[in-house]
């Protein structure tokens, strides 16, 4: 309760089901999976992805649909067992006014979103910084707002109308995710002026949201080399007043085309260990297409492993699970191993010991044989000593 009151913990509430998930200080690192229809993906296909993501125990999903956004959000909320986030302004392109941006937020809040990404911290000054990058802007929301600001020569309407957005969201249970519209899309741009300018503005908006009683957390990178990730997490916690931190990856190399789930999991584990609270699933298809059904599965599995790897470092109470798995592994107890596995993959149990790695050279079997003989020898020694002891008077 103290963490929620201080804004260090945000609780996501599902509008249809009595299911909640929390992110923040002292909580397990949670995992979000992005879904959503577009010109190349149908609602039916995205509902299949939702099913797979839930089977592999994603903690939340985000509907990133770019058409029929309200109808799709309602459908996602209806079929999802976990909280559903959304990005309202995806419906505001190419023709949008200030009122369009605000109406989009209001409609998404009213129609069941558990949290909304609001890209209010990307200002014209930050966009000017981004123009000097290797990879200018990679956020879809960032592109929409940069286009609007260029066309109108006005400031980001989500920033100038932030108090009105807070009024819309107050008391609804819907949280604000302060979007990282200027997140780095290449390692060369990590922790640059554009990213850090947006991060400072996020810190200002966190204070305003908390004063209005609206739950708020911050989004972060993006692409980032490993040696900068922990530094970035600490900086976010400092500048954004310990608000929960949600990161996309971070991806630790630009070279993993087709296997970005691996790059994202490496960065996610480092970020989680450093204090990040919420990881976004990165799929193998991150940089060239919408994710496949298999890509959703692989991305969720990789990200859950990353989240728990970080939790092992920062949350000592989570280490008990690894200890139980270690004991089950030594005992060659396959049913227990599957019980504790994060991946929920099923292995063949047709034989007593399905492992085909070492067979007769299994070191655990060999050591157990040694220990069994030592226990038997000690038992015989104790029996001999007992037989030679003088009878009591």
General description of the model:
With 393 residues, this protein is of the alpha/beta class. The protein contains 15 helices and ten strands. The chain has helices spanning 2-6, 43-55, 69-79, 98-110, 124-130, 140-152, 157-160, 162-169, 193-211, 226-239, 260-274, 293-314, 319-330, 334-340, 363-388, and strands spanning 9-13, 20-24, 30-35, 60-63, 84-86, 115-118, 175-178, 216-220, 245-248, 278-280. Strand 8, helix 10 and strand 9 (245-248) form a beta-alpha-beta unit. The radius of gyration is 25 Å and the shape is elongated.
The counted number of beta strands is 10
Q: What's the overall average pLDDT, rounded?
A: 93
Number of helices: 15
Report how far the terminal alpha carbons are from each other. 68 Å
Uncertain stretches: none
Q: Biggest sheet, open or closed, and with what strands and sense?
A: 8 strands, parallel, barrel
- What strand line-up does the widest sheet have? 3-4-5-6-7-8-9-10
**What would you call the structural class?**
alpha/beta
DSSP strand (E) fraction? Answer: 5-15%
Helix content: 40-55%
What is the overall silhouette? elongated
- Rg estimate, integer Å: 25 Å
Order of helices and strands: HEEEHEHEHEHHHHEHEHEHEHHHH
Query: What's the quaternary structure here?
Result: single chain
Sequence-ordered SSE layout with sheet pairings:
Elements: H1 2-6, E1 9-13, E2 20-24, E3 30-35, H2 43-55, E4 60-63, H3 69-79, E5 84-86, H4 98-110, E6 115-118, H5 124-130, H6 140-152, H7 157-160, H8 162-169, E7 175-178, H9 193-211, E8 216-220, H10 226-239, E9 245-248, H11 260-274, E10 278-280, H12 293-314, H13 319-330, H14 334-340, H15 363-388
